[in-house]
């Protein structure tokens, strides 16, 4: 089966899909779209993704976007290992955890929002950094409260890592980008450490992507 992922090394949403593909043992080729230089707005990519964001996932001629929708598609075509629990209530809880970052925290710090703050409201780099730190911290704090109510065992929903862990690990990557101190979020930090000990997570981390290495070499 042929799988292509249009992604970007720094993209948290691309990270989520990379981890899911690797946990399920599905091989893929990644085509980089540099969302910092504006490649997402070029007509060629707009033809691939009308929203002009990464990731886009192409499998056997079918094309999807939105990381959560892609992961649920992977769950359907390759049910094992499960990334969503079998029980209805647990599935809903797993999706609830995932959406804290996918729907609420992460969208506030993406390039289009940062650029709008700068271009429309004159926010300088310091203000934008403070904005990103605020919303990223809010996401971490929400996860910490949730993990205090239901302790990881050892992953968010149980014995194996799943969709919630993928999304929480992505939120922690946002914190790494911003050099945020995780000591106020010990349960989140421990969960992320557990995740990044797994090769599928570790090899999907932005700093492990070829694009990141090309940037740091300059
Ligand atoms: N909710 C979407 C997020 C998509 C998204 O915003 N991706 C970011 C990178 S993580 C992007 O491409 N941003 C381009 C921009 O902001 O211009 C998902 O989970 O796939």
CATH-scheme architecture of the largest domain = Up-down Bundle
Main sheet specs: 4 strands, mixed
CATH class assignment of the largest domain: Mainly Alpha
Q: Tally the structural domains.
A: 2
Mean pLDDT: 96
Q: Could you characterize what this model shows?
A:
- Strand 1 (3-7), helix 1 (12-23) and strand 2 form a beta-alpha-beta unit.
- The model has no long low-confidence stretch (mean pLDDT 96).
- A 4-stranded mixed beta sheet has the order 2-1-3-4, with helices on one face.
- Helix 6 packs antiparallel against helix 7.
- It contains 10 helices and 4 strands.
- With 218 residues, it is α+β, with helices and mostly antiparallel strands.
- Bound molecules: glutathione.
- Glutathione is lined by residues 11-13, 35, 40, 53-55, 66-68, 102, 110-112.
How does the SSE layout of this entry go?
Layout: E1 3-7, H1 12-23, E2 29-32, H2 43-48, E3 56-59, E4 62-65, H3 67-77, H4 88-105, H5 111-121, H6 125-149, H7 163-177, H8 186-196, H9 199-202, H10 210-216
Parallel strand pairs: 1-2
Antiparallel strand pairs: 1-3, 3-4
Helix pairs in contact: 1-3, 1-7, 4-6, 4-7, 6-7, 7-8
The structure holds glutathione (GSH).
Quick structural summary:
This protein is an alpha+beta fold and 218 residues long. It has helices at 12-23, 43-48, 67-77, 88-105, 111-121, 125-149, 163-177, 186-196, 199-202, 210-216, and strands at residues 3-7, 29-32, 56-59, 62-65. Glutathione (GSH) binds at residues 11-13, 35, 40, 53-55, 66-68, 102, 110-112.
Q: Notable features of this structure?
A:
8% strand, alpha+beta, 4 strands, 55% helix, 2 domains, 10 helices, binds glutathione, 218 residues, 4-stranded mixed beta sheet, Glutathione S-transferase Yfyf (Class Pi), Chain A, domain 2, globular, Glutaredoxin
